[in-house]
Amino acid sequence: MQNVDEIVRSTLLDPYGIDDSDLQSMLGQVICSGIEMGDIYFQSAEAESWTLEDGEVKKSSYSSRQGAGFRSIIGEQTGLAYSESFDKQSLMAAAKAASSIAKAGKNATLPISNDNHEKPYYSSENPILSIDDLSKIDLLNRLDAKVRSLDPRVTEVIASLAGGHGCVLIVNQDGKLATDVRPMVRLSLSVIAESNGRLERGTSGGGGRMTYEFLDDDQLSKYAKEAVDQALINLEADEAPAGEMTVVLGSGWPGVLIHEAIGHGLEGDFNRKKTSAFSGLMGEMVASPVCTIVDDGTIPDARGSLNIDDEGNPTESTVLIENGKLCNYMQDNLNAKLMNTKSTGNGRRESYSSQTIPRMTNTFMLAGEHDQKEIIESVDKGLYAKNFGGGQVDITSGKFVFSASEAYVIEKGKLGKPVKGAMLIGDGPSALHQVSMVGNDLALDPGVGSCGKDGQTVPVNVGQPTMRIEKLTVGGTT
Amino acid sequence: MDQMQHIDIASRALKYARKNGAEEASIKLSMGNGFSVVSQNQVIDVVEQFNDQSFSISVYIGKAIGSASTNDFSEQQIHATIDKALSLSRLTEKDDCNGLAEKELMATEIKDLDLYQPSDLSIEKAKEMALQCEAAAFEANESIINSEGATVGSYENQSVYLNSHDFIGETQSTGHSISCVAIAEKEGQMEMDYDYSSTRGLDDLRDHISIGYSAGNRAASNLGSRKLKTQKAPVLFSPRVSKSLFSHFLSAISGTSLYRKSSFLVDKIDQEIFPNFIQIHEDPHLMKGFASTYFDAEGVQTKPRELIQDGYLKGYLLSSYSARRLGMKTTANAGGHHNINVEKSVDEDLNEIIKGMQSGFLVTGLIGSGVNIVNGDYSRGANGFWIENGEIVYPVSEVTVAGNLSEMFSKIQKIGNDPETDGSVFCGSVLIDDLMIAGE
Questions:
Q1: With an 8 Å Cβ cutoff, are B379 and A82 in contact?
Q2: What is the ipTM of this complex?
Q3: Does A223 share its domain with A281?
């Protein structure tokens, strides 16, 4: 098997006759006199999807894209341009456009050197080629059969299988060249169940930086059961309560709380610009002492993991909050430099055409000491929010929301009736002071998370153990 | 590359697809370029230039479909993309509802809608506008201590849609925008708010200074916000957020939600959805509109029509596929809805409606996607102002508003005469009786 560097060069450079001396001229243009930092980002990405509906795979699409982004930075100012054509003239023109934030100056001469971190957190194998197309169709058909065999109230099954494979080649301002090959797969399942004229949806799915081979029969059965159970539970659900109450959050996907309430507020750019509700709180207690939160881009095969970030820096495991105390922000090169610190390997961009900004990878709260059962039993009256949809945060005011997709009332330590989905709303800097118990059941979400910021979407994981929050506002109707 | 070259690439691609077995095919080629600049704290933070292109094709063989796309316009890559689409269509199951829209529906009347309004806005001039816009936010109020930046952008798009009914549709359009996000601070509490303008032509943009100024004033007015007690109260949605209510309505009447039976408005045609004073029209031919076109994404001729008449649902949003699934005719909505006008029900703007309220919650911001189109359940994070005796008394944050869309639609009391002119859904302030507000 070829190594990563060979795969990337043979995809991005060789077909266009681009060699290191060409990269050197482009870099010389990007880092011309007056420019302090910058980089070149060559990328190719292919993606496929297969969709099952009405019991048949009737839709499939495939896309391929490529481009090269050029970035020049002076102080806080960034110039960004790109070319989707890999002829040398177009590439140089884009490099020139990026560096036009500086007054025309002399081009720099920077030698190119390989800087590959041999830390494969995932395979470089192309998922699209990992199994043949008929097997992909068969996989979705088997999933459909499993779902429909579970309950006659299921009326609609929509399942999709998506795979992608990308190559990146980055040259930074020091002439260091780094490469990565990034696979991604995801299975998504949505079912509709109907009873007495009432319709409810249930969803499930998962994936990561791997090939389709993890989708064995057991895994498919698990997804089928999860989605059907959720739809059936929602068929029975009462109106959700409204107002402040004690809330127990389930493990795994509910970690979207960590992502929204704390994660975004600790990204370097917001803190450098002092627009985050967490600005200037370094070293302060921003959560209760039972909370330790990390961002870890090095988890094998995880959706949010990267071997190197999009500036060529190795990803890391960064402790953001330790026993309640704020100890690190997530940084890219630019914000780290302006804040006199080092990149934490969190510089990410959606593609060659977008800005590099500090982003999360896999962000989660570490396990505590309580059993899940013990936590639920400790609540006299409240809500157990087992599963969640998405969330959103206003970085500046710190107010965040996230929506429960499966929830139950808790009465006298026991789970009562399921209640409908509702929005939960809180205040980032104060919400985690309200965490009173943390479970011993840390789990990451199954690999379905996407995070949006500044119009860019990147894959991430979230996670947490079961936790008890003393007071959170639940946006129900009764 | 110009439009003639695009048409040439697309025509040759279509020939290639047919020669290699496609019974029907459609191709879209598009190209866009432009720039944006950001001023943050009176420094030009970002200068971004973009230049995109894409080629996409759908082919049908024996009523089975395959689709593929690329951004590399070399003949070799275009052929590889078509080959891929053909091979996918040989693997997928056939569906009798598949296929191009009927040939007789292809648009024959295509007029200029003034969507192309090129300007001579230079990057240097845009930087100046962004700096001045942001400076106005800082001057608006002494509490404005920071900003997320003022952004000025300009772009130009060209596209060609072509299908095997010999339909060719060309589109050329431009867009200009300016936005400003201001941050106010008082006693350690920060609040953010924004204003923006987005139009086809540069000359139609609202004045950049007034946008900065209003972003600053809005952020300052949010300072000192409180939670509300959990209660039921009248809720007034400002024009900035009211259009989202109608966007939920539009997704609930979209063909895909309907044939999948995953909408609370399934089988509701000719039924009463809104109070009798509500009229909603679709206008695909609005000059300079953001959702204006004479042909939809399948080449079908668009026509102005009524979606809601006297509160009754008169039409869905269908493509040829979803129409066939439902045993209906396409409504020329492949690719989505066109410009939507929600008619005013009273000749009052936001302030006049407030004056007529005893008490209630004015919502100026919504966050989170807590809307379930399957059953209509609605629950979103909200901020805004509390109204008492016809006046704003204090800002509100960290609460939710919740209900069910069917019920919320039927409880609309007033639609104001003050729609924003940006975007493609036009709707004034909306007053809804008695919604659940969760707070303290």
A1: no
A2: 0.93
A3: no
